[in-house]
Amino acid sequence: MIWEALTPQRRFMFSKKYGHIAELMYIPVNYFALRAIINFGDPAYGCFTFGSCDLLPTIEEYQAMLSMPQKEREIVYFFNPKQTTKRTLSKFLETVHATEIQKYIKAKGGEENVPFDYLIKMTQTYIDEDKGLTLLALCIYGAVIFPKAEGYVDRKVIKLFFQMERGVNPIIPILAETFRSLNYCRNKGEGKLNCCVPGKLNCCVPLLYIWIHSHIKFPAEFRCPRLDFSSPWNLMRNTISEFGMAVWDPTYPRKEAWLSFFAKLTSENVIWKAQWMPLKAVIYRCGDFHNVPLLGPWGGVNCTPLLVLRQVWLKQFIPPTHNLQESDFSYDPEDCQGKKTSSSMRMEIYKKDKRQRTL
């Protein structure tokens, strides 16, 4: 394993730039719980509704879990259909021509894909350089964070990743595909969470699973371990690693038990403020709209952080919801041709300052 062979110094360099994404490879996931949670997504409000409680993974929470540094000016991802996979990789690798890369590109589901084995080979070639760490991060994004086709990395993930190298915030695309994938599974009525099946759950399952356990207190019969996360003010904390080190009982309740529990969830079972969540400014709406648009590699969706302000150290109030509408769409390359990209459009994001509005 490439990650395990890295020296502590190289691992530190990797985590400083990309956060703790490598630890996501070792997170145990209970798929019965995830199959159950699909049924409680509310696409109109852009959140999960469990019984009388609304919960939502926010941009700031995912950023805190991954320990990604927050920038003064966040660059929003936009879909650019004109970029080619071979030229994107060739420009980065410098020593490999685009025609050579084209030999390895395969068509899967109508999309260009790069074999995972090829990227691993390139990673091993450059592992002693900064370029090698970047390729390792790309492999993790393609295999764990945005899985699409087993054994391959989707071209849109590659394009997104190299936009990240130029400053794009990856958290928004991660959340976008989380909600879109859950919506897809619920609409199809399948409840299948096989990350390697195209069109099913093309998102980061381990991260969603950690978030669920950080906000909900499960009954003793579910045999979930007690999770004691480090303080959010601990600069050396690693929330993902701490979760992975917990001792999990191999016998899990079935899907029906999880469904029954989530349906009857009350505020007494909810941990509104995750132990690892620091006090910080939050994105809670976009312009005059009461929700926030999220753009991912394959489409976009809305979420409504106004419904869950108590999760991020703010006083909760009942927000206006009369104009909230379901919004979940996939990109149509033909519609994108000849139009201005999202980078030319100004998106005004409003933030609440927690230093002034703490509970």
TrEMBL record:
Pfam family, one: DUF7745
Domain annotation DUF7745: ranges: 5-355
Cited PANTHER family: AMINOTRANSFERASE-LIKE PLANT MOBILE DOMAIN-CONTAINING PROTEIN (PTHR48200:SF1), PROTEIN, PUTATIVE-RELATED (PTHR48200)
Protein name stated in the entry: Uncharacterized protein LOC127144399
Native organism: Cucumis melo (Muskmelon)
Gene: LOC127144399
